[in-house]
Predict the structure.
Amino acid sequence: DALNGGGFVFAYLNLAQRLTAKVGRLDSILIVPRDGVPTAQLRSEINRIVDGRAVVVDPAFRAKQMETATSVTRDATLLVSLISLVIAAFLVFNTMNMAVASRRQSMAMLRALGAKRGHLVIDLLGESAVYGLVGGLIGVPLGILGGRAAVSAGSGESHGGMVTQYHLPVSAPVIAVLACVVACVAATMLAARSVFAVSPVEAMSQGEVAESAAPRSILRQVAGVTGIGVIAGSFAVALQVPGRPAIIAGAVYAVGVLLLCFALTGPLVWLVVRCARLFSGPGQLAAVNTERAPRRAWATLMTVAVAIAVGMGTSGALANMVSSMSDSLDGLADPDFYVASQPLGQLPTDPLLSPVIAKQIRKVPGVDEVTDGQWATVNVGEARIIVQGLTAGSLAPFMKKAPADARRDMLAGKGMVFSKVLARTLDVGTGDRVRLATPTGYRETTVLATVDYVSLDSGTAAMSLDLLRKWFDRDGATYLQVTLKPGADAEQVRTELERIAEQNPSASGEPVDVHSGTQAIESSKQIVEQSGAFTVAIQWIVSGAAAIALLNTLLLSVIERRRELGVLRAMGASRRFISRMVLAEAAAVAIVGSVAGLLFGGVLHWLADKILAATTSVGVEYSPQPSTLLFVTIAMALCLLGALVPAMRAARLNISESIAQE
């Protein structure tokens, strides 16, 4: 059961060859050197004997190929996870920053009793480390359950017959918990700077002197310049760095945005104040409260902005990936039906179809044309590429996307058309020569053109079907394209095709599949949609955490101001007035936070498209998504709903208890 979910059959070689219609053929040869034999010398001798009829690689190459094949899921999830870690650190920063503000008097008392600032900082860092440790330990089993659920929901075979199974390396929980601790401590180090502003004498008085103090000008300037530089660096990484390292650009961008917004604390808080004053009398008092606590206002609006930006960036990029996949597969749905040697969702690279099946299909009433085609896999070093064999009558994305002259030369056997991902993998361009190892020896070909195409494994290419049959010694077809005559009854033809397929199994005796062109493209799109499902779940977890942090921040603001709220009630302010004041502050924060979230989320969306285009096999094209309005609506609703509890608590404060000295 541990081997591919039990999806293996073991047999002696001669029996396995007969069962798979590969008598006299081998897929691989495993070689174990004798003790003391130099590996490099042995590899050189084997390469001389093989002479291009196969590649000589380490056994681990198959694992690397499967890792490449799952790049969409891996990279999309890793991108959101890195961004989520930065956002989590930001939420911890907000929480600890508010904690420092609420503990000013107790810390001042400790300072007056002789405690040094360093002692207070160490205590604060130790507290955050405990939070990170406990939170990480709680998150490990939750993550395991979530991972198992995600894998179970998308269980099944990928191309190549490999079954997706849940596996957790022993080091993963340890790394996850350490990342939580480091993120918490790092975020708290930034918040702990407020401790140095606590004066034993000044902080013992009533008020919020330290809280209302704006960040020092030099600190804001350094943060602004650093933030702009970090954001520029994230763009450079996303646009210039190929492959998986580009993923780090997402986390770098999030750090840059937070630094830039910290530098813009003054203007952002001023906007909140201006918005609050639009809500008549309660809004005027809400504006005063905001001016007195700029750090709290900044933290709250940034929480709203973060929730919107993460939602826009991740969901928008995934939506663009799906739509770009549809564009790159233009032509896949053109045939009315496919008759393939593998089920829908798997690439028919093997086995070959029965040679009589095409003849019988051509005689079916309503069938206009039947076109042969083949898919084959080629190892180029440790990379595995997919090659499609086409004829002049083939309907395929490569036929639509390739320039006319390149298409003509390809069908004439003068070269191959590469996907852009394959060209990047092999570091070649149009006009370059490429040498491939095939069962008939080394073959050289010319890159006629590069096109956008959803690339499985390390890339995809197209060539003449006749040339593919010659090079790979595979007469026949692995799939057939069936085109109907105008007005033909598609359901009746499909019934007949399924009957013929059932009567003519493939060369290895496996059943033959019949599916429509529409089903083919929908199945291909589901690969990305399933890959993005777990990523979207992470996104909603981040948004949920932001909502909880928002509620905590608003509630803390009411608790900190309970004395002044009690005074207002004693002066005659109604419960409704007090609650409207709290809601007015939340509404102002929601408006400014939503605008900031739209701005930064739009840039993150564009950047995420470029990152996924660099790391996956899909050429992602940017386009704005209508779902943006949904995220803005949800964020503003959460902000107002989160303010309801604090507003109700503020309205129900006991006047005498609120104004009593502590």
User: Anything to note?
Assistant: The radius of gyration is 32 Å.
